[in-house]
Amino acid sequence: MSAATDQDPVELMLKKTGCIELHYKVQECIAETGDWRACQDKVKEFRACMQKYVEQQSKKYAHVK
Description:
Elements: H1 3-6, H2 9-17, H3 20-33, H4 40-60
InterPro entries: CHCH (IPR010625), Coa4-like (IPR039870), Cys_alpha_HP_mot_SF (IPR009069)
Domain CHCH: 19-52
Protein name: Cytochrome c oxidase assembly factor 4 homolog, mitochondrial
């Protein structure tokens, strides 16, 4: 089995967005605290990164009908 088939499809998608490191920070925080509510700063950073990516993609493909 090659390394490409072992990779999580979610991780592959997140790498394309440029937000993978923020995703890892959220996961680490939740693992450390056991409470996602304690990690809201990291969640907000990740959400903002993903929103920026979505907006960039929307602009990129806006002319495609």
